[in-house]
Specification:
Oligomer: heterodimer
Shape of chain B: globular
Helix content of chain B: 10-25%
Order of helices and strands of chain A: EEEEEHEEEEHEHEHEEEEEHEEH
Number of helices of chain A: 6
Number of strands of chain B: 10
Distance between the termini of chain B: 35 Å
Strand content of chain A: 25-35%
Largest sheet of chain A: 9 strands, mixed
Radius of gyration of chain A: 26 Å
Distance between the termini of chain A: 98 Å
Structural class of chain A: alpha+beta
Chain lengths: 354, 141
């Protein structure tokens, strides 16, 4: 039996709206919500597609040129190390993606980077006006690399990057040069699709990162499309948690599969599959999990992949100095107790205070 | 009577040490030396988010940023924070009450709070205050 006809054919399609913090000039970054010299903030929309087949995930992201100038950045957690990064096909995203979702995008002034951080650069490439860097490292390493390279991370990023790094220390950092896009003749609305090929045994759909940088009360809206050999098992199960609904679950049509297969780099799309759509409309502060997918038919989506269980114990929150002080207090308490007991033991029987 | 006095003394000593060890962030070396406060910034929150110091005495504040992003420690009254919410200074240095702590670094500043009262310390980088980077210092007489 060919591997392609076995289990594990997973295609994930999601659309993403990237919050782009747009700088027209200079790194006037700090102090009191000042975003740019003119306070300009643009919203860009980026679409993302990830497919899984024969142990290889195909991840496609498109950055749309929204006009203006400056540079923008995005960081996406990945389930493994890409073996290849190339320009993606032209119509896959348009065929599958129906909505956009919030995703991490940062202001980037791209100052000269200081000394390298702990993050390991695994791959770098340029596609049109897009610079792609694949990194391996812990949350602090990747965060430091990003800030060193001009990304301005939102305040919740340290915790969110750690959340992902504990399960997969691979991230893709992408910077989009709007000036270069304009010079290349790209029109507003033109997208640059990027196709990552990622061998991995554990695909998942990152959801928590969609709420990154959002203010309290903000909502995350997204659609996640899954294409699998079988009806997939999902965790959390849509409909059982607030904000996740099963919008579609049926056999994929031949026309859809044919259209997808005919695009550049999409020959891996199987001849039959099950199409699932999960609609997300959740409060950002309640979206603290990811979507684990088991397409093998075993019906065992991973608690770790969903983010419900940490793969390793959490680091102690209190600094060692506090522990030493508490320990000292306990020692003093013990000495004091011994002293009191000693006084009581030496007290004559039947004695009364004077 | 002696036994009661001894027991009371031991109890008072234990209580004082326990309070210091468990809840206190301020260490005083002597009456003339600066008090010492350590504040850790982790996941964009101050730890501790509150401490008490006496008025008129120098306080050495050690700010340890464990995050991979920059943070600020700006302490003052409501008017000062209102100015910083719309300010344009990208980096704070030179004023002991307004400090930028770069990613994964430690900065020490010495502050003398003149009058009793309550002040807030806040990070005014975009979104940080709303995310919870707010603390309170209570200045006692």
């Amino acid at each position: 039996m060919r591997r392609s006809t076995k289990a594990h054919r997973l295609a994930l399609a999601a659309t993403s709206a990237l919050v782009a913090v747009f700088m027209l000039a200079g790194p006037t970054l700090a102090c009191a919500g000042l975003i740019g010299p003119n306070g300009a903030v643009n919203l860009l929309r980026t679409t993302t597609f990830a497919g899984y087949h024969d142990g290889v995930e195909h991840y496609v992201t498109a950055f749309k040129f929204a006009g203006g100038g400056g540079k923008f950045g995005s960081i996406v957690p990945l389930p493994g190390i890409p073996s290849d990064v190339v320009r993606g096909g032209d119509w896959t995203l348009q065929r599958l993606v129906r909505e956009t979702r919030k995703q991490l995008l940062f202001e980037a002034d791209f100052r000269a980077a200081p000394a390298a951080s702990g993050a390991e650069v695994l791959l770098q490439t340029r596609i049109d006006a897009l610079d792609i860097t694949v990194l391996r490292g812990g949350g602090a390493d990747v965060g430091k690399w990003a800030t060193d390279h001009g990304f301005r991370l939102p305040p919740d990023s340290p915790e969110v990057l750690d959340f992902y790094a504990q399960r997969s220390p691979i991230f893709m950092a992408a910077s989009f040069d709007a000036d270069a896009a304009k010079a290349r003749g790209q029109s507003i609305g033109d997208g640059t699709p990027v196709h990552l090929t990622i061998p991995t045994d554990n695909p998942w759909v990152p959801l928590r990162i969609l709420g990154l940088g959002k203010t309290p009360g903000a909502t995350v809206e997204a659609d996640v499309f899954l294409l699998t050999d079988h009806r997939p098992a999902l965790l959390p199960r849509p409909g059982l948690v607030p904000g996740l609904q099963l919008a579609h679950s049926d056999a994929a049509s031949d026309s859809l599969l044919t259209d997808l297969r005919s695009d550049k780099g999409m020959s891996w799309v199987p001849s039959s599959a099950w199409l699932t759509q999960v609609a997300i409309d959740a409060d950002a502060d309640r979206l603290t999990f990811d979507l684990a997918v088991d397409a093998s038919g075993k019906d065992t989506p991973s608690m770790v992949a969903a983010g419900f269980v940490s793969p390793r114990p959490a680091a102690p929150a209190t600094p060692p100095a506090d522990l030493s002080r508490i320990g000292l207090a306990l020692v003093v308490c013990a000495i004091g107790a011994a002293f009191v007991l000693g006084l009581m033991a030496t007290r004559p029987a039947g004695a009364r205070p004077a | 009577m002696k036994r009661r006095f001894a027991l009371s003394s031991v109890a008072a000593l234990l209580a004082a040490i326990t309070v210091w060890a468990v809840g206190g962030a301020v260490l005083g070396r002597s009456g003339s030396e600066p008090l010492h406060v350590e504040i850790t910034i982790h996941y964009s929150h101050y730890e501790p988010a509150a401490f008490r110091v006496p008025a008129g005495r120098p306080v050495e504040v050690v700010l340890r940023n464990t995050d991979p992003i920059d943070h600020e420690w700006i302490v003052g009254d409501a008017a000062l924070h209102a100015r910083h919410r719309t300010g344009t200074e990208p980096y704070h240095a030179g004023r002991p009450t307004e400090v930028t702590i770069p990613a994964l670094s430690t900065i020490t500043t010495v502050v003398t709070f003149a009058s009793p009262g309550s002040l807030q310390y806040i990070c005014h980088l975009p979104g940080h205050e709303a995310y919870g980077m707010v603390g309170t210092v209570t200045i006692t007489p």
